[in-house]
Amino acid sequence: MPTRLFAFLLAPLVLLLAGCGSTAEPALWRVDAADAPDGAEPAGWLFGTIHALPRSTKWHGGELDQALEQAGVLMVEIENLDTAESQRIFQQLAIDPALPPLSERVSPVYRDELAEVLDDAGASEESFHYVETWAAALTLSSMIQQRSTLDPEYGVDKTLIAEWDKPIVGFETTEEQLRIFDQLSGDEQQDLLESFVDQADTIGPHDLSDAWASGDADRLAGLMDMGFDASPQLRAALLSRRNSRWIGRIVGQLQDGKKPFVAVGAGHIGGDDGLITLLEQRGWKVTRVQ
User: Fold this and answer.
1) CA 236 to chain centre
2) What sign does the dihedral 178-248-227-186 (CA atoms) show?
3) Which among 6, 16, 47, 215 could bridge 141 via Cys, Cβ 3.0 to 4.6 Å?
């Protein structure tokens, strides 16, 4: 398996193909108590991340750095991004010798597109014969990214964790994240792979990154929703249920005055099931920082 796979795992599927320009001004939201007086410091922040960037990308500065300075705790998807451990668990979960060929695990309409993706990745179908469908989708994505300028070593999550010198809270462990994929039903795994091969042909490598870098949250949300149009069940597994599990811990940090800086994949922020909506439903005010 590619050794850099894990850095991409729980980004929304369409973010697995994102690139980025050299300068970025990504979106940031402040969180306040509903009765907070004018001029009060934020109770916390939400920041949608991207898990791989070109080395030259610059995204620090201004309001973002001020928020990081004021924040008391960093909340991320995984606190310890241990590549060796993630690879060990991935290989333990991803292999099933009883599987049919990969092309038989997608609908006929997607088979030509799958062949193109395999070719773009420099891979053969035979190398995925015993690899579960969810793992094949993630591995192919990683292989394609390794042929681009994107580098998970310069992803926002990893950079924030490396720079942070205050408490860090991780929402999930490596194994918990991987088991989310491993526990997808057969139909959901098929949707995951078909969505990936479809997006590889319809979303350009810089469409998402340009939206993220410019702070165009509406465009970014629209592009990400394309990855889940065909499968509400897949969205529920990869986004909605996880957001519901996280929100209580976020609110707890806010109520305790910890001033959390919540930095998770950008797909978790917006939408009817996103963290902004869930916070507002619990009486918090969420405002875009300009």
Assistant:
1) 14
2) positive
3) 16
What letter does residue 162 receive in the DSSP assignment? H
Can you tell me the distance from the alpha carbon of 32 to that of 144, in angstroms, rounded to the nearest whole number?
41
Is residue 185 helix, strand or coil?
coil
Those residues of the chain that have pLDDT short of 70 are 1-22, 148, 150, 203-206, 226-227, 229-230
Break the chain down into helix, strand, coil percent, rounded to 5: 55, 10, 35
End-to-end CA distance of the chain: 42
Task: Give the pTM.
Answer: 0.88
Predicted confidence at residue 256, as pLDDT, reads 98
Q: pLDDT exceeding 70 applies to what percent of the chain?
A: 88
> Residue ranges of the alpha helices (H) in 156-228?
156-163, 174-182, 186-202, 207-213, 217-225
- At 229 the pLDDT is 67
- Cα–Cα nearest to 142, from 130, 132, 133, 152: 152
DSSP result, 101-112:
PGGGGS-GGGHH
